[in-house]
Amino acid sequence: MKTRKKVKQITADGFKYAFLTIMLVFAAFPLIQVVINSFKTDADVKTMPIGLPEKWVFNNYRDAWEIGGYARAYFNSFLVGGCTIVIVLTVVGLGAYALSKLHFKMRGFFTAYFFVAISLPGFLYIVPDYFFMNKIGILDTRMSLVIVYTAMQIPFNMLLLRTFLGGIPRELEEAAKIDGCNELNSLLKITVPIAKPIFLTVALLVFVNVWNEYLWSNTFIITDELKTVATRFVKFTGEYSSNMARIYTASVISILPVVLLYFIFSNKFIEGMTSGSVKG
Amino acid sequence: MNNNLGQTALFAIMRNKKVINNMKKTSIIPYLFILPAFIIHFCIVTLPSLSTLAMSLFEWNGIGNATFIGFGNFTEIFTEDNVVKIAIINNLKWLAIFITVPIIMGFIVAIIVSRIIKGQMFFRVVYFIPYVISAAVAGKIFTAYMNPYYGINVFLDKIGLTSLGDTLWLGNPKIALYSVAFVDNWHWWGFVMVLFLGALQQVDPVLYEAARVDGANRIRELLHVSIPGIKPTIAFVLIMTVMWSFLTFDYVYVMTNGGPANSTEILATWIYKNAFAKYRAGYANALCVLQSGICLVFYFVQRYISKKGGMEDED
């Protein structure tokens, strides 16, 4: 009896793991094959896009990096991402502190405002924003992207941070205030050090969203030299569509920073992105 | 004991007074803290959104003067514009696909992952990878795979599936939309799975034990413990799917741009073309209003059905 039960358990487990492995292949295989294809010659990729290379070649990376203008694109994405992170952390840190710690008349209004704001679709404001940016002459600048990205990232991160800060005991900040700190000092000296992990989560989420964003940067940026990685990559695939190996290689180059960050901080990513999140 | 309590109460009152005093003294501070974020968001998002509503009543090319034409844009949408009809139908197909396939996949996998002992974290991390990757890049990767001459078809031909190998995944108007949906689903289902898994892990283990004591088998356990336990998450995923199905853009734009012959046109790509290719900003705004309106209607329909079906406990 006992052994039969054990056997049954083992077969059940076997089926579970087999099924999960199939799903694993479905999720990961397309990406692994992209990496493999980036080490093939173009002719090799074209005759057999699935499977290992006949001969491993490594020049695709140098070629795609140079032809695709990736040094420039990386710089643009890091610059736009960095600026957006700094501004978002500043304004959202201040705002979330007010919403979670301070008592004031319109607190309810502001909280409700950001809750509604989360679900406003980009298409509702992209057309006026575009023509407004055009009018004041900052269309086709990286600054225009920083501005819209900051605005778009505010509601979600505001609420994420508000929830976290709400969990920090108020006594700590009160003690600081009794010692003569003003609100800003108690935020900087007490709350921020405790809330470091959540600030890191916000920074990561903002960075990934900026790095991956396509619609706005494709609309706002016309000059190649100012394009971010995602837009530059899509343009590259259009211009050099004949060389498949380079397209696969450019894909790897385009997603590498995000994937690396994901492997280092996967738990932060998953927690941040699934905390009542909105699809990006 | 009593004395102690009294002291605590007194201290609490004193502290409250202190807090109230602080509040009066610094009543402008909270506004200084919240206003930067509010002003940025209001100027870049809310105000333009309102102007979209207003500008939908104008004929406008985005640069010159706008002429008021009342509901002219909307009349055109419903009487002259044939593409809008295709787009709405495609968005509905999209909704039908995404309200079933990824949710069922995510649910089944989440149930299984929650029941294994070794490797939960590993599976979770890998299934989530496609969600982290840029939609534009993922779309182009699969466009390469779906290339009729150099893509997966070469492989299908070689293993003998020649009829499948002749398929134009993105070139055939009948299947292009489903090819794109397949890719978007590849990117999306892991996210749904992780949401479900997180919810399943929150279900009180005592409930499972109680069910087992009552002699429930795995299926009954699923129906009476797991599903009721994650109802709020299911409702959340449904609402998100419904709204987002009418807003989806990246994959279609990058992979087919609405083609071939408008067969994969969705509202978002059609808006984009009107606004930034044809420079019909007023008309595009009217389409945006229509899109958001449909979203809103479906949102309320979904909420209503969920409530009737007991999907949400409160609010």
Q: Give the total of domains of chain B.
A: 2
* Shape-level CATH architecture of the largest domain in chain B: Orthogonal Bundle
Rg measurement of chain B, Å: 26 Å
Q: CATH H level of the largest domain in chain A: which superfamily?
A: MetI-like
- Considering the protein shown, what is the CATH homologous superfamily of the largest domain in chain B? MetI-like
Describe this entry's structure for a reader.
- The complex is a heterodimer of chains A (280) and B (315).
- With 280 residues, chain A is an all-alpha fold.
- Chain A folds into two domains: 2-60; 70-274, MetI-like fold, CATH 1.10.3720.
- Chain A contains 14 helices and no strands.
- Chain A is globular.
- Chain B has two domains: 2-55, no CATH class; 72-308, MetI-like fold (Orthogonal Bundle).
- Mean pLDDT of chain B is 86; it is low at 1-10.
- Chain B is 74% helix and 1% strand.
- Chain B is mainly alpha-helical and 315 residues long.
- In chain B, helix 5 packs parallel to helix 10 (176-202), helix 6 packs antiparallel against helix 10 and helix 11 (205-213) runs antiparallel to helix 12 (218-229).
- The longest helix of chain B is centred in the last third of the chain and has 28 residues, at 281-308.
- The interface between A and B is large, with 94 and 92 residues.
